[in-house]
Specification:
561 residues, alpha+beta, five-stranded antiparallel beta sheet, 37% strand
Length: 561
């Protein structure tokens, strides 16, 4: 995409200023893509002793109108050290469309980095007779299977509302992850609106047509209080329904490597870090190597495991992987962090092989690779190998005495310790017997008790995602979580208990293969298709559970400054 002259110079200004400034003022906006007429919030944070009242905002007024200004201050004391944080909050409205820049702000010697904001055309006008408008949109009409699509349900209100809620989004063939909600002001044809955005990240699990059903918004007009006994609950109830949406779900392209984990993403980054410089390693010492895989538009459970390849003279002792999800303007950002202790058995020069992970760039519609280049490390001889042989044969005068047996303890003291040991052993046994007699009996859940776990469907979709990415450890954790919800058990299950409770031969075999891949040395790469198929077939035969306790998705209350 070609940039206009103005957009090019704004981007160049932002990059150049960010590279040269040593920011002591922190500046952030709640959104970097807005429509003309919408408001954004600019937060300016003082990190030193800057006087925020002395802020010069004249350069900001060239592209933005300041709608409202407020300030906050907080003080904390940690380990006797007192620190104060002060902020200025500005509600801004862009004056025109295009790529605008919030310029770097300055107070004395403290400066902030510039921030770019993309301003799009104003939204379509609404009916002047409407006071509440609800709409839904997706960020793309096409998505690859297991790729991310963002759904935004937007509620515009020109009146005050109470008891707002949106029906819960449930899709049979997709995993749904609610994202953070946004609230802002909008001006259309001189008419002010309060806008709430409810966002979801959706990951289709099979190709074809994905239908997103209408979402229902329910609210009640605020009638105001006429007396101290009037609680304002008599306003008219409103209900609005969005139009259904359809998305074309594309299959995995043939150009993607057949034997690798399918990763449709906006970006994939592979990084490594070390607990210390590996070239300072000596034979017999260990160093921790951490490799982080981060994918934009992916769940953490979709990311494949990273294999540490041992070689002659080097051994790895891997830790449990850390799989997390975070949010960004582009939706979910999944992360998988693998750590392993690297131990060198001998001195020498070693080459750690390249790590190359393919992924599908959904923006450019092509295969790309996240690469961690090969690395050479040199291991020095250990301290014991470099010590002088004469020094190892020299002993201090008292060394021989240290090898002599100690004098036995007096006989009376030995017998006293025997009696004390016997007494505490009897006391320990009596305590266990008393606890066993008085333990509460396991009681069945009363009929009117709330369900322990109403997220069986969501747990099942997490399991499907882990199986689809062939991630053995996350799949085992997701399997046990799903089983606890499916069987409504009061405590987590073990894998062998799960096989015994369900009594399904296919599932038992899939669990055995999963455990073999996790706990037996020399096992081949685990594939999750068999486990996913066994669980899906079991749910089909015996009936899958669905969330019923949560019927609505509550909206955040409107924020006021």
């Amino acid at each position: 995409m070609m940039l206009s002259g103005r957009r090019f110079w704004i981007l160049l200004l932002v990059v150049f200023a960010a590279a040269r400034s040593q920011a002591a003022l922190e500046v952030a906006v709640d959104r970097q893509e807005v429509a003309l007429g919408d408001s954004i919030r600019l937060v300016i944070t003082a990190t030193a002793d800057e006087d925020l009242d002395a802020l010069d905002l004249r350069r900001l007024l060239a592209d933005f109108e300041i709608l409202q200004r407020s300030a906050t201050s907080s003080t904390s004391i940690v380990n006797g050290q007192r620190s104060q944080t002060r902020q200025v909050l500005l509600d801004l409205s862009p004056r025109r469309e295009g790529l605008l820049a919030i310029p770097g702000l300055r107070i004395g010697a403290s400066t902030s980095e510039p921030v770019a904001v993309e301003v799009g055309p104003p939204p379509a006008p609404t009916d002047a007779n409407q006071t509440v408008v609800v709409s839904a949109e997706v960020d793309s009409q096409e998505v690859y299977v297991q790729g991310q699509i963002l759904l935004t349900v937007r509620i515009q209100q020109a009146i005050n509302l109470d008891s707002r809620s949106v029906s819960e989004l449930q899709l049979d063939n997709a995993y749904v992850q609610p994202l953070e909600q946004n609230s802002f002001q909008r001006t259309q044809d001189g008419r002010p609106w309060l806008v709430h955005e409810v966002r979801y990240a959706i990951f289709p699990e099979q190709s074809g047509t994905l239908t997103i059903p209408p979402q229902v918004f329910t609210g009640r007009e605020s009638s105001g209080r006429r007396s101290v006994f009037d609680f304002g609950s008599g306003g008219r109830q409103l209900q609005r329904r969005t139009e259904p949406l359809t998305v074309n779900v594309l299959p995995r392209p043939s150009a993607f490597p057949a034997n690798d984990t399918w990763l449709p993403a906006r970006d994939l980054v592979l990084e490594e870090s070390w607990s210390k410089i590996p070239d300072t390693l000596q034979a017999g010492e260990s160093v921790t190597r951490t490799i982080t895989l981060r994918g934009t538009g992916l769940q953490g459970a979709q990311l494949p495991p990273i294999t540490f390849e041992a070689q002659d003279g080097l051994r790895y002792y891997p830790d449990q992987p850390a799989v997390t999800d975070a949010e960004s303007a582009a939706g979910l950002v999944g992360q998988r962090r693998e750590s392993a202790a690297l131990v060198a058995n001998r001195a020498g020069r070693f080459t750690l092989p390249e790590i190359r992970i393919p992924w599908w760039d959904v923006a450019q519609d092509t295969v790309r690779y996240a690469v961690l280049p090969a690395r050479d490390i040199t291991v020095a001889p250990g301290a014991s190998a470099t010590a002088s042989p004469a020094a190892t044969q020299t002993e201090s005068p008292g060394a021989t005495d240290a090898l002599l047996p100690l004098d036995p303890a007096p006989k009376g003291h030995s017998r006293l310790w025997q009696w004390l040991t016997a007494f505490f052993a009897v006391l320990w046994v009596a305590t266990i017997a008393l606890f066993w007699r008085r333990r509460p009996a396991v009681q069945a859940t009363p009929p009117n008790a709330p369900p322990r776990n109403n997220s069986e469907a969501r747990a099942f979709k997490q399991l499907q995602a882990a199986c689809a990415s062939d991630s053995a450890a996350p799949a085992r954790a997701a399997l046990l979580h799903w089983a606890q919800a499916y069987l409504d058990m009061p405590r987590p299950l073990r894998a062998d208990e799960l096989a015994r409770h369900l009594g399904d031969d296919s599932l038992s075999q899939a669990i055995a293969e999963l455990d073999a891949a996790l706990y037996r040395s020399g096992s081949s790469q685990w594939r999750g298709a068999a486990l996913a198929s066994a669980v899906a077939e079991l749910r089909r035969r015996k009936g899958g559970k669905h969330d019923s306790a949560v019927d609505t998705f509550a909206l955040y209350p409107p924020t006021t400054s």
